[in-house]
Amino acid sequence: MTDERIVELYWDRDESAVAETQSKYGRYLTKIAYNILTDMEDSLEAVNDTYMSAWKAIPPHRPSVLSSFLAKITRRVAIDIVRKKSRDKRIPSEYVFSLNELEECVSDCKDVEQRIEAEELGKAINAYLKTIAPEARHLFIGRYFFLDSLKDVATYCGMSESKAKSMLYRTRCGLKRYLEKEGYYI
Amino acid sequence: MREENISEIFHDALQYLDDEMIEEVQALRGGVLVEKSKDLNLQTNPEVETVENPYKDDWKKEFRPWRTWAALAASVCLFFIVGSAWNNLHPEETGHKENASDIEMEMQDEMVQHGGTIGEDEADKQDDIDNESFQEEAENQDGVENESFKENLGIQESEPEVEGSLEDWVEPGESDKLDIGEGIGLHDYSSVQYQLKDMASEEKKSVSEENLTIIDKFIDSYKNAYENGTVRLVDFNSWEDVEKDADGHLYLKLSDGAIIHFVLLGNGVICQYEIPSVWIEIDRRVYDTVLEVLRKEQ
């Protein structure tokens, strides 16, 4: 079933919309959740929460790209779960590993005067990603949005792991410089 | 904890990525693929079709296992040379006693040709001659190896039509090793590097002030590193693999896993070396080969 048809089912408040969503995107969303949670039970719970959130959001929302819309919800739900669980004790997951990597984008400035609104920062990251090569962009999104392992990202981007690692490093450095140039001091 | 909070902000910010960019990666991941149903509409929906990875194995189609063939050819040559030397040294074992005098004549001729002298220690002399022959073979093979490499990559022998090329900056050197100030030194992971030779005033006019300052700074840094003995040489013996991506960028992988990234930009070459704060010096032949490849691909 096409995405447009599925979205119409949501708008018609037809409960088969959830079943169709599960049929089409269930495995995809579970993988995203599992990358973050590393626990199947939690992942399935996160995916179920995703269906619930989608049901509540559509309408009034009419996502243009249903898969990305659902992926963002799943990601948000899973990250919230892991933050609740791992504040005090670390859960070894790609999400946690990626936190360590993204620390490099943080400057050494000890006096943090203000925190940046996530949405504004997201716009800046969007703008930066549009300036870099598609290959580097795919790596960055695969690693930090989908939270795939470095090995998986390198595989589906068609390169060696070491090349992916070095390219990601360069992208993070470039992002840091871009954010500083745009006036984002973290 | 502060850093973790800030990194978490980054993850929150990524929720606002453009859907189109996310969809691009989804296609590569193949995560949207479901078992194809009998519904024809579903099969034609690009979101559920597997997208073949466009980057996969591209580089393997371009590069040939020239090093393997070169090593094999060298081994075969060595086998024949050693075999021939053995036959000459031990004619009785090879059943050529009746022709010993003829063989001796041949040895004499060969020794004379290679400037050797006939004396008591003929076995040692013969070894020296064989070594010399092998050395010549190896050197010739080296040239052939480079030629084969270039041939396999389709590199043309004619000069590339590029105005103000790097050849104008650096005079072709006769030796393989490059002296300080004439080499292609690379430093600092994220910086653009140019050749370090002092440029003529005319050429300097075409370079921006900022880049000129960078070049001068790196010349000094490179000289210091050279004097301290911390410059690392990169030649054909130290690189392990070459990869080329869909954008035509070249990646030279060294034996210890470090990577040098080459890309043509205008008349120059941008080289990025993976490990910062370490100077490396690239052998002329390696650099020329890379430059030719990049220019051909442009």
Brief overview:
The complex is a heterodimer of chains A (186) and B (298). Chain A has 186 residues and is mostly helical.
Q: Describe it for me?
A:
The complex is a heterodimer of chains A (186) and B (298). Helices cover 71% and strands 0% of the residues of chain A. Chain A is an all-alpha fold. In chain A, helix 1 crosses helix 2 (16-37), helix 2 packs across helix 4 and helix 3 crosses helix 4. Chain B is of the alpha+beta class. Chain B is built from ten helices and seven strands. Chain B has a four-stranded antiparallel β-sheet with strand order 3-4-5-6. Chain B has a three-stranded mixed β-sheet with strand order 1-7-2. In chain B, strand 3 and strand 4 (250-254) form a beta hairpin. The longest helix of chain B has 31 residues, at 122-152. Chain B starts with a helix and ends with a helix.
Describe the secondary-structure layout:
The complex is a heterodimer of chains A (186) and B (298).
Chain A: H1 3-11, H2 16-37, H3 40-57, H4 66-86, H5 94-102, H6 118-131, H7 134-144, H8 150-156, H9 161-181
Chain B: H1 2-13, H2 19-29, H3 40-44, H4 58-62, H5 66-89, H6 100-113, H7 122-152, E1 184-186, H8 201-205, H9 209-227, E2 232-234, E3 239-244, E4 250-254, E5 259-265, E6 268-273, E7 280-282, H10 284-297
Parallel strand pairs in B: 2-7
Antiparallel strand pairs in B: 1-7, 3-4, 4-5, 5-6
Helix pairs in contact in B: 5-7
